Amino acid sequence: MEKAKTKQPILTDVHNHSNFSPDGVSTLTEMAAEAFARGVAYYGISEHINYDVCFFVPEKDKANETTNEQAYNLAARKLQREYAGKMEMLVGAEFGYLKDSETLKAYCEYAEKYRPDFIVNSIHLDGKTDYYLRHAFYEKDGSLREKKTVYAEYLSLVKESLSAPYPYDIVGHIGYSARYAPYPDKGMRYEDFKEEFDSILTEIISREKILEVNGSAQGLAGCTVTDESVVRRYFALGGREVSYASDAHQTISLMRGREEVIAFLKEIGFTYITVPCRGKKIKIEI
Ligand SMILES: [Zn+2]
Ligand SMILES: [Zn+2]
Hints:
The protein is of the alpha/beta class.
């Protein structure tokens, strides 16, 4: 008797970094080779374009804080051509949103100049420093700030970033600040910030952007950075466009948490993953 054929899933991992990014480890060649070896059909690289961080550092230090744009785009487009027909490699960028007109203008110029295949729009800064540095969680005298206050501030930044003037596709890792929070319960759940999340999620839907489901949960409860309750609420509000990202900075982290994330999405009712590609949205059945 013939065995029932199980359909092979089409693998996607859109939003990754190589050592072109200041915090990347593996080379771009290694990252792409690993993705290809693991059968990834749509592999999206998105180096950090940190104009947000650069705003706060002296001119002489700026080069250490962001990606060498020209070198990155040249190398990535070359690799993209080499993988053509074998793996769809997408050359993207991750923009760190900052409410500053010159910074926003610089991102628009980047988008115009390099025409990324996709753009991830992310909040990394508490307004001035990256959440991973943990300054946001403490008062000047060293005492811990209230979780409710810090998270509400973070969510207001996410909300603000949705009206960025550049053509972004994906709203990156909502809940990023929770990863680094010093609280015993780091959770940034829908129930505790209903108004904020409803406002963000409905705007993502009305702007036809993609909500990223980022598998780099790093110590958070559940399999994704964005709390599972928030992904459920997005679906309940009618949101259907989700992307999967490992947000890997080295080969070993590619596709991290993917199976768990996909099982979770299917359980909610999602039937496809969306891959943004040069202004189009490709729907991949899950
Ligand atoms: Zn990020
Ligand atoms: Zn990233």
